[in-house]
């Protein structure tokens, strides 16, 4: 939380109440690659490549260049994703109910000059790759391919009748 210097309670107003009972909190670590999308704002690929005293962080490339990192706020049971750059930070807030398989869904806010602005947009973070790691929840196995129909053998060809040699055409 030291990076941004904000209170999490302010951000939690952007997140709906927790309802799901999935594995929580997600394990965030160096080596993971996340695709981040903030509705009508931008898309980034975040490669968590290093750590500092607050945890894993990395470069986010896409709509613009930013530094991204996740923070778990134990007191408020929320995962925060900050994308810092261009003199502002876009902050996604994910509650427990926003975790589905390898996807986090929540709301977004903008932090500029130590002031939060609710931008009334959704934020989605999808775990694409984790070197030596499993997704937040293992994805469901792909559906089995359809069973090809068993071909029906062709009807037996009736034997060609052997005509008597004495047969003649009138």
H-E string: HEEEEEEEEE
Q: What's the mean pLDDT score?
A: 77
The protein's oligomeric status is single chain
Shape: elongated
- Count of alpha and pi helical runs: 1
Q: Tell me the structural class.
A: mainly beta
Spans with pLDDT under 50 lasting ≥5 residues?
Answer: 6-22, 132-139
Number of strands: 9
End-to-end separation in angstroms reads 108 Å
| Order of strands, widest sheet | 1-2-3-4-5-6-8-9
What's the helical proportion of residues? under 10%
Rg value: 29 Å
Please summarize the sheet with the most strands.
8 strands, antiparallel, barrel
Strand content: over 45%
SSE blueprint:
Layout: H1 8-12, E1 32-38, E2 42-52, E3 55-62, E4 66-73, E5 78-85, E6 88-95, E7 99-100, E8 103-112, E9 115-130
Antiparallel strand pairs: 1-2, 1-9, 2-3, 3-4, 4-5, 5-6, 6-8, 7-8, 8-9
Can you tag this structure with a few keywords?
170 residues, mainly beta, 1 helix, 46% strand, elongated
Task: Write a structural description.
- The protein is mostly beta strands.
- It has a domain at 1-8 and 39-139.
- It has one helix at 8-12, and strands at 32-38, 42-52, 55-62, 66-73, 78-85, 88-95, 99-100, 103-112, 115-130.
In short:
The chain has one helix at residues 8-12, and strands at 32-38, 42-52, 55-62, 66-73, 78-85, 88-95, 99-100, 103-112, 115-130. With 170 residues, it is mostly beta strands. An eight-stranded antiparallel beta barrel has the order 1-2-3-4-5-6-8-9.
């Amino acid at each position: 939380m030291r990076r941004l210097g904000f209170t999490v309670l302010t951000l939690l107003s952007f997140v709906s109440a927790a309802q799901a009972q999935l594995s929580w909190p997600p394990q965030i670590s160096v080596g993971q690659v996340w695709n981040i999308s903030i509705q009508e704002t931008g898309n980034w690929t975040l490669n968590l490549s290093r750590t500092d005293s607050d945890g894993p962080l990395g470069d986010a490339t896409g709509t613009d260049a930013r530094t991204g990192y996740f923070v778990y706020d134990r007191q408020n049971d929320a995962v925060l994703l900050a994308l810092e750059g261009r003199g502002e930070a876009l902050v996604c807030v994910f509650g427990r109910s926003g975790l589905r398989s390898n996807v986090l869904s929540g709301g977004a806010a903008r932090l500029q000059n130590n002031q939060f602005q609710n931008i009334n947009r959704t934020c989605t973070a999808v775990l694409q790759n984790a070197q030596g790691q499993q997704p937040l929840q293992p994805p469901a196995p792909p559906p089995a391919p359809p069973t090809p129909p068993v071909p029906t053998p062709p009807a037996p060809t009736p034997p060609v009748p052997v005509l008597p040699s004495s047969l003649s055409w009138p």
